[in-house]
Amino acid sequence: MIPLLGEEEAQAAAEAVRSGWVAQGPRVKSFEHEFAAAVGAAHGVATSSCTTALHLALVVLGIKPGDEVVVPSFSFIATANAVRYVGATPVFADVDLATGNVTVETVDAVRTAKTRAVVAVHQGGVPFDTAALRKAADGWGVHLVEDAACGAGSTAYGQPVGAGAAVAAWSFHPRKLLTTGEGGMVTVDDAGHATRLRRLREHGMNVSAADRHASSQPVLEAYLETAYNYRMTDIQAAIGLVQLGRLAGLVAQRRQLAARYHELLDGIEGLTPIKDPAYGQTNYQSFWVLLDSFPTSRDDVLAELAAQGVSARRGIMAAHLEPAYADVAPPPLPVTERLTRNSLILPLHHKLTADDQERIVSVLRGLSR
């Protein structure tokens, strides 16, 4: 992933520096408002990363030690780590082969009386079935946290994936379509949750530093609870505001490039590319292919692509196979292990040319014989 950053972002960042206010301030407030509106949420609370956004989401929902939270293993490790941050126990669920996402059935298979929440991921930008999982979570009486780290610009049932989400966490890391360098966001529909999230990200203060400094009268702040320093800077938010204006065009371009990949890859036996689910559209944050019955192993394919100057990478990790989770005894996760073992991510970025794609696919086609 090569982030699309240009002179507009550089000027916006420079203006923030020249303003003299570089910490969390008016630009963060504007970015929160505009991003929330873009994804169909009532409130946005900017954070230092999606990892901290997930952590705060679980804190504000009251998840605590002794609780279980169902998560996919098939995700970046931060999804499971956030559960441990609050002292709760992550319980790994398997995923759907076609989308790489948890489903009502895979969550229900590992749900117990201790389950207090489910963290469902829009994996690689592919939306999970929001209608089905939201309805199921309501019926089970558990919270649904939507990990939309890769989801900006994706849709489900004709709406942005954040629309209708009680709580969603977003990433603006450089590998995402919309980047602020580092940074994240929590979007919520509950005003009370938004107020507490803003307090939690700023040391538990009852008034933000920006509001305190803007006041013409002395403000004696109070610290209402033990909290965190998870703030975004105005420099980052200035970049984010420009990036938000680019998002629709960038998604359209990536979907065109993905469509070209689909055409070129058609007919290669043993190779299945990711595609839109019936209920939504992916932003193609990642374009991964499954090499289930391919004659060449995934690792050998990666090695040959690298030898030909193509920077592909392994598919999405499985957290339960990492040393950090060696103490966890998960249920059988056959689809997760099949996907993480046999998939790879092909280059997809705004500088990718038709010639680049033809060269990449020619390597794959040669290895399929």
Automatic annotation (TrEMBL):
Known cofactor(s): pyridoxal 5'-phosphate
Keyword set, alphabetical order: Aminotransferase, Pyridoxal phosphate, Transferase
MF-aspect GO terms: transaminase activity
PANTHER family with a match to the protein in the record: DTDP-4-AMINO-4,6-DIDEOXYGALACTOSE TRANSAMINASE, TRANSAMINASE
Family: Belongs to the DegT/DnrJ/EryC1 family.
Official protein name in the record: DegT/DnrJ/EryC1/StrS family aminotransferase
Highest classification ranks of the organism: Bacteria, Bacillati, Actinomycetota, Actinomycetes, Micromonosporales
